Amino acid sequence: MNTVIIFMVVLIVFGFISWLFTVYNGLVQVKENIKKSWGNINVLLMQRSDEIPKLVKVLKSFVKHEKIMLDNILESRNSFLGASSIDEKADADNQISKALKSVFALSEAYPELSSNENFLKLQERISGLENEISDRRELYNDSVNNYNIRIQSIPDTLVARALSLKEEEMFKVDKNKIKDLSIDLDNLSE
Description:
By secondary structure, this protein is mainly α. 77% of the residues lie in helices and 0% in strands.
């Protein structure tokens, strides 16, 4: 009888430890997926940021009267480079995206700009990066969502609380924090 009880206790303890390791490893995996997803976004954000000075250089030779807009795009880039948190980077990303839309709209007002090979290559490169950032943002947010669900679901929440795991923030667009960098194409100096 004592052997059966000891065997049952050992089996229960072993089962509990196995369950604990499984939950812990699962939480580590979803947490690391967030880091990986963010790393992918950050690489693309940096690549786009590296293209901005090249774009501004090309633009300066064509749009001499748009200094404020060019300063805004460089200021947005500097905000990104100085950002340390995901929220700050998301805000800076939103600023850059808005500024780039305004810049690319300039090609309608400056026909010689829209035929410039360097501008067209930069526009294509940056637009491609914008699309990739959007795709990666979706993957990141899915990773965050999976993690947040896991740390709130029973029984995983018991291990998550013991490890003091907190919810992660989505990489979102906050329209209230985006400056209006739009331009009036009708009033551009030609």
